[in-house]
TrEMBL record:
Transmembrane segments: none
Matching Gene3D superfamilies: 1.20.1260.10
Cleavable signal peptide: none
Positions with biased composition (Low complexity): 63-93
Pfam families cross-referenced by the UniProt entry: Ferritin_2 (PF13668)
CDD domains per UniProt: Ferritin_like (cd00657)
Top-level taxon in the UniProt lineage: Bacteria
Region of interest called Disordered, as start-end residue ranges on this chain: 40-112
Name assigned to this protein: Ferritin-like domain-containing protein
Length: 324
């Protein structure tokens, strides 16, 4: 197999991929920080007067802050109800005696009590809604981490094959596989870091559905084309899953995180689609940097981008890789 590689061109290709990946990782750190700030209770906001213990886990911070906020609002509602009832009683006494208005006072006290109860119920419901949204976000992030874990293990296995990581390997394909594997590892770390900050557990296992697909495919691999086809499936599943979950997470910060990583996976897929198209044409001889444009087939210019809008039909369910 021809192994024609221009070191400068290869460096530029890897650098472009790394720039996109680095942008995604910077977005991840900013997004998670902003998410935690946005979902903090009023008592945790700047100037709120409440300090969070640094040694408590994120879930404890959230629960304690939620309880404190509910207690404070409940107390305020009760104080306001008492003050209003007292004012009405005094006004009735001034109009000719408290007994003339005692029926009305009782009714109004009942109304005040009901209002206090409704306020408390509303707080509990709001807290439950926030908790439910956080749980859903954690599941989505755990599933994302599981997909990345599977990609890492698949590329690791592929690089042990002589035609991907050995002496028979095309230099461009090998370099791409090594860099892509490293990026997937960082994506998994990023998703798990977000999970932990939101109070969840790290997902260190592979996606169960596609782990079975990879397990079944590995024994049938005969050449680089088989590896590329399998990698395309995994990159596509990752990109489609993150693209769909952009609209499922609860904040714009997490939408930015998923969207930026989806772009990296889509780039991986585009490169693999181009490689897949060139492998059968020349047994890898056309996979060079820089490419010989005069020898490339017509499809080389468009095969990497088959869709105007990225599809989501292969997206994994949010709970597919979530821990239970």
């Amino acid at each position: 197999m021809t192994d024609a590689v221009d070191d400068q061109q290869l460096h530029e290709l890897v650098e472009q991929s790394q720039d996109l990946h680095s942008d995604a990782m910077r977005g991840h750190r900013a997004a998670v920080g902003d998410y935690l700030e946005a979902t903090a209770s009023p008592g945790q906001q700047a100037g709120g007067g409440t300090e969070r213990p640094t040694d408590a886990p994120p879930a404890a911070h959230s629960a304690a802050a939620e309880t404190q906020a509910q207690a404070e609002t409940q107390a305020q509602a009760e104080t306001q109800a008492k003050a209003q009832t007292q004012a009405e009683t005094q006004a009735q006494a001034g109009e000719g005696g408290w007994w003339r208005g005692r029926g009305t006072t009782r009714r109004r006290r009942s109304q005040r009590a009901a209002m206090v109860g409704i306020a408390g119920t509303g707080l509990v419901a709001a807290g439950a809604g926030r908790a439910s949204a956080a749980t859903s976000d954690i599941a989505i992030l755990q599933t994302a981490a599981s997909i990345e874990n599977l990609a890492v293990s698949t590329y690791t296995t592929a690089l042990t094959l002589p035609f991907i990581g050995g002496t028979m390997a095309n230099g461009v394909v090998k370099a791409f596989a090594m860099k892509t594997m490293a990026q997937h590892a960082e994506h998994a770390q990023a998703f798990n870091a977000a999970v932990v900050k939101l109070g969840g557990r790290e997902q260190n296992d592979p996606d169960p559905k596609y782990a079975a697909v990879v397990k079944a495919a590995v024994p049938t691999i005969k050449g680089p084309g088989d590896v590329v086809a399998l990698a395309i499936i995994l990159e596509d599943v990752a990109a489609q899953t993150y693209t769909r979950n952009v609209s499922e997470v609860g904040t714009s910060m997490l939408r930015m995180l998923l969207g930026s990583v989806a772009a990296v996976e889509a780039q991986h897929r585009a490169v693999l689609l181009a490689v897949q198209a060139l492998l059968p044409v020349s047994n890898g001889a056309l996979i060079t940097l820089p490419p010989n444009l005069a020898t490339l087939p017509k499809a080389a210019g468009s095969v990497a981008f088959p869709n105007a809008f990225y599809p989501t039909t292969m997206a994994s369910p949010a709970t597919e890789g979530a821990l239970r």
